[in-house]
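Extended Data, panel c. Modelled sequence:
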Amino acid sequence: MDKGYYHVYSFGEDTPKLLTNEREFVMAINILAFCAIKFNVKVMVFTFMNSHFHLVLYGDEDSCRRCGEELMRRLLRKINAAREKPYLFENVSVSSDLITGREELLGVMAYDIRNPIEAGFPMDPRFYQWGSASLYFAPRSSEGTLISGMRTREKQSRMGVYYDYPEDWTVSGNGAVSYRHFVDYQGVEALYGSVKAYIAFMYMKKDMILKMNMRCSKTDFEAMPDLELTAAAEDLSRKMYGVGVKSIDPVRKINLAQKIRASRLAGVKQLARILELDFRMLESVLP
């Protein structure tokens, strides 16, 4: 399979209280480090919030998708054991979107890095503890405790999980695997090219932020169940063209999508799926 960059993220609507304390955030980071090894993907950017996470991964499509799903599955397993099963995995969605083009890649990475600011974090994202922003264009640090020198009980106590990590990996004082071991921060720096370009992308335009927020909001693009929206599209197609959706050409499908988008809270991804249209093409013509 061809490799590429993927924006992998979960939906806060599904897990409003996903991570509630330092120990759970540490556990999430350590699970991500393990999943990156297991699925042989590069983590370019990560950000964990209370209700969701954002990742930019490099690898083949299947590996990136499975990495995100495995991260959520293992995280929910731990959380359910401690909180009397508040979440069912089958009710939790993780999206994996191919990123096309360098400009989009730099924009998505910037969006993920500054996500804490959008949620109200009052400082520079570099000081947000549960994301990778502190690594980019920053002094290198090699502090930490060697995992190989820790006993099993200490690993479980400090790290919240017990996996086999490379022997030269270290953990920070709070028990999280040192980010530099599993985040390709040098690759991110090379993609931006300079600290000036990196900073420039942090100043995202408000309309770009709104567009990304809509894309990453399950409420936007799955406000109606697929079956209900399919029935509505069929009914509207017959009223407009006298035939069902499968009998109309792509141009008419786009017109149908525009009508549905204007009258119902349906997002581009769901409309593309229901109408069997290319998502990128449909996104370019819908508001």
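The mean pLDDT is 88. This feature is highlighted in the accompanying rendering.
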